[in-house]
Batch of 2 targets.
Target 1
Amino acid sequence: MAVCAIGLASSMTVFAAEAQAPTERELQLEEMVKELLQRVDSLEKKLEEGKTETAAIKEAVEKKGEEKTAKPTDAKGYWKGGLNFESADGSNKLKIGGRIQNDWYAGSVDNGDFQDGTTFRRVWLKVMGTVYDDFDFKLQYGLENDGLTRWKDLYIDYKGLDITQIRFGYFKEPFSMEELMGNGDLTFMERAPLNSMVNGNDFASRNTGIMFHNGVLDNRMTWEAGVFKRTDAFVNGGEDDATMGDWDITARVTGAPWYEDNGKKLLHLGAAYSHKDWGGDALRYRSRGSYYNRGANTTLVDTSETDANGKLVAGMKADAVDMVGTELGLVYGPFSLASEYVHSEVDSVVPGSPSFDSYYVQASYFLTGESRPYRLGEGIWGQVKPKNNFSLKNGGWGAWEVAARYTNLDLTDTPVATAQGGELDDYAVALNWYLNPFTRVMWDYVHSESDDTTGVNQDADIFMMRLQLDF
């Protein structure tokens, strides 16, 4: 604008000089041009002052924003796999979740009274989180199918050390991949009968103790080792030695030597050991098939014996029990394979210490292309997330999975001739429909065959369905 005005002024000056006798009109035009130039200079100065003031304001605002820091007491809430709350600095976190499992049953057991019907297998509420970065915690409380409420987990995990994390409280001992999994993530409605050797009538997978654990090699290898008081922490002041025994020492190590494509191709290997000081108390192994025990006389193999009144009583007493477990897992795209083996040596009070064995092999395939998830740093299977959640509006059909499992449980080496210990063969097939990561419908069929040491053979055929919400 200034250049144009100057040019115009120059032209007028030249024109005036050549004319030598400017008219009054020309003089007026010259005065107007001078006035215009003055106004242009004034506007340019104001514009520069405005730019300087704007820059100063912007700088002040940015500086103020940098000086403002988040207070630890500030918090935000959001939904991610449950209801979450988190402090503004991220050092404190809280997550609230739950689990509902409604089961339906129909079937029969030879010489037993299996009851058809429905029940709420589990209704649980859990709260977990982090306190000032270094402390994790978990509280899980549940209503069981027997109508009783129990604490399922109650522990604190200190993770302020690089070499190890330290967990203390009431939680699962590190033994068996399937047992350590949450029951909401299982492929089948019930764990394999092998589980009766880990979490059976006398054994409890959860005990009060202290455990050191960590993940190494990018969490592809895990190790866990702990000492546990084998009691119900909420009965008789924390001790019930007459029925629960004494101390356990339990350890587990896992590795994923092959891990590709974010876990869509992997090989899992694991091993565990547990020594249980039993103190000469009664010990009992028993199992049904892989179904929930509804009704009377549905237990198929049992190391107990029958007394004069026809009542089953513990058939052996033990000073100690030693268990060894091995694990194998394979994922190759939508196909997965899993297997475990457990061997138990009983140091009985009387001569003839028995040993028992169990194993299972299971395979599954996702018809919709998903892969079974694997939790690095824990060495267990995780929660299935469909590629497309079920939605009639958007056209998604969720994830569909078919699975089959065979389990063998050998309790024939019982030291009591009148015990029902024997061999159990269990066959299970499943169809799972994952509507979304938190909602699932399951259909299982189980056929179990037992051949006990008393000469009594029993078969069971059970159909089951579960409606599950787990978040």
Target 2
Amino acid sequence: MSTCEYTSVVTASHPQAERIYEADCIEAMSEWPDACIDCCITDPPYNMSKKKGLGWAFSKHITMQSEWDIFSKDEYANFTHDWLKQVCRVVKPNGNLLIFGSFHNIYLIGFTLQHLLNRRILQQVTWFKPNAQPNITGRLLTESTEFIIWAVNSTPEEAKGWTFNYEESKTFNEGKQLRNMWSIPYTPAAEKQHGTHPTQKPLALLTRIVKIWTKPDDLVLDCFMGTGTTAVACETLGRKWVAIEKDENYVSVIKKRLEGSIERT
């Protein structure tokens, strides 16, 4: 879609399309005016990491140690409220909010949206990963699902006219109504060639979301951009995007994916 050089900036008084804001998302959004974004699609920290990580039952490998994903319960509740409040302010009335989560955080996100910010939750999508990794402790079932809350940025009484591309949604189910349980494999290696993120989502998943819940030329915000999958999906489908990502290593991956990845061909 865009031929510009993908650059990162720290702050701006208005979100610029095809720009990466290398900043804390709450601080970056606080500089923007009300109702300047059409849709938000984002994958926030789940607060599932541990200071000492988690060990596998059958190897010495340690995982889930990301510092950006470690909060106390109160810290995480406050953080969730604060970034969602900013999202609800900068997204236009009746704009779509698509927010990823697992059982670790999805209930708090839903509570915050519905009861603290008085937004209408329309539906939940369940993403089933047929190739999910085994349970690392050997003490629980294999966790093979994540969730996406679909909310509209208005009160239950005022919500109306939200974007839902019904006919487009049926293209993902052989012309029939699409259900809210999606079986899509975990992120393939080809999408990690420029760098990886522990919660990176597959392009097929984000492409489906962008195609169903946004319109051409919409400005789509991802305030936890990670390695840029939302931006790649928007580029492919002719949507404008704006990214916020505070980790410079992930910002570098976003630029590489957008500037030269085979995903765009």
